[in-house]
Design goal:
There is one protein chain. By secondary structure, this protein is an alpha/beta fold. About 30% of the residues lie in helices and about 15% in strands. The longest helix has 24 residues.
Length: about 400
């Protein structure tokens, strides 16, 4: 194992500021009334089409509490790629991952679902993949040199186990941050399998705006954070890879302790976008990751001057508008199996009808081989007799030139 994950842990991979949410115990919808982000993103308008049913969002994080009332029945069996650290019931267990899962797919609780947290896609399923430890976990030092490949392995595992969306509310933006070949390859693998990959852009806006990985890998939807007024959050990293923005300040989050807190960070912003992608995917299941990424950027609201900026990407994600725009799109045609090696087959490739023959089929190849052999015989005889330059009959020469693409 390398120490890549350990470095990420050391620089607060999953850090999110937490403060106890002001209580509103007199009202059943007190928590949901404070979820300003849902209105800002026009989520309820998108719900007129879908709430994400049938879509699986993998949450690669610190784990997810499948017993939380706001997530009950929606968390699938997951994978622990860390293998040590805090366990269920301990304070340093699954806090960050549960918070992100709630933003993505919380369905509330109570008789009418009016209590607790509502996520962007409350009908989506969560696939938890534990790849990091909480900041407060006593075993973080132990992890620094033992679980370097967890993130790359987690991305591949999620892609192989049905993830339609992969949420990466984590990243390394330390001074030593650099691309890891295994992680990059894992991201490309997931994209090829049809999973949309979303990552937080980084919380280094006040510390030099250093590049953050995995946000900077090609094909990733990198998300920056804004406040309730649509302004860039001061902590949000500004970089060329920014794709779209989403709420990341004063965000209501669920916790395994069954209480609710306010969180901040591009971690939360990424979760809002993953939930938005789940809605778009549910409405248009045939669209590719590239098409969905394009939809989000084309339909983003409050676009910055010039259509894009390092601070906000293309603007604030708008799942309702993306769903509507997707109605006119057709899924990208699937490439044939031989696309990466166009010369692997003769003729039209493995899908060519049996018994059909054309000018590039195997029958003509046999004919051309025979003609080439005849030409070589003529050349040999000519040289043996010393009869001067080879003279190939015009008909034979025409067939040879045609056969070799002249």
């Amino acid at each position: 194992m390398t120490s890549a994950l350990g470095r990420r842990l050391a620089v607060a991979l999953a850090a999110a500021g937490l403060a106890l949410l002001p209580a509103a115990p007199g009202y059943a919808d007190g928590i949901q009334a404070q979820e300003w982000a849902l209105d800002t993103l026009h989520v309820r308008e998108a719900w007129q089409t879908t709430k994400g049913s049938g879509i699986t969002v993998a949450v690669l994080d610190t784990g997810v509490d499948d017993g939380h009332p706001d997530l009950e029945g929606q968390v699938l069996p997951g994978k622990d790629l860390v293998g040590f650290g805090a366990r269920r019931g301990e304070r340093a267990w699954a806090r960050h991952g549960t918070a992100m899962a709630g933003i993505i797919a919380g369905h509330g609780h109570g008789a009418s679902g009016g209590e607790g947290v509502l996520g962007v896609a409350p009908k989506a399923r969560i696939l938890p993949v534990r790849v990091i430890l909480e900041d407060s976990d006593a075993d973080r030092k132990k992890a620094r040199s033992t679980r370097g490949g967890a993130l790359a392995a987690g991305i591949r595992w999620a892609a192989d186990h049905g993830a339609d969306v992969i949420n990466l509310s984590l990243g390394d933006d330390s001074a030593s941050a650099h691309p890891e070949a295994a992680e990059d390859a894992a991201v490309q693998y997931a994209l090829r399998k049809g999973a949309v990959v979303v990552a937080s852009a980084g919380n280094g806006g006040e510390k030099g705006d250093r590049i953050s990985y995995p946000a900077a890998y090609p094909g990733v939807i990198a998300v920056t954070a804004v406040d309730r007024y649509g302004s860039r959050a001061a902590f949000s990293t500004r970089r060329w890879y920014a794709t779209v923005s989403a709420p990341g300040v004063d965000v209501v989050i669920a916790d395994p302790d069954k209480r609710y807190y306010e969180g901040w960070g591009t971690s939360a912003a990424a979760a809002f976008v993953s939930g938005s992608v789940a809605l778009v995917r549910a409405a248009h299941p045939g669209l590719s990751p590239r098409q969905i990424r394009g939809l989000l950027t084309r339909t983003a609201q409050d676009a910055p001057e010039g259509g894009r900026s390092d601070a906000l990407g293309a603007g604030l994600v708008n799942p309702a508008a993306a769903i509507t725009a997707g109605d006119t799109m057709k899924p990208e045609a699937q490439r044939p199996a031989a696309a990466a090696s166009p010369n692997r087959y003769f003729g039209n490739g493995p899908g060519h009808p049996k018994g059909a023959h054309d000018d590039s089929g195997p029958n003509q190849m046999a004919l051309l081989a025979g003609l080439a052999g005849t030409a070589l015989v003529i050349a040999a005889i000519s040289l043996w007799r010393g009869s001067g330059p080879l003279r190939v009959p015009p008909r034979l020469r025409a067939l040879l030139l045609r056969g070799f693409g002249r």
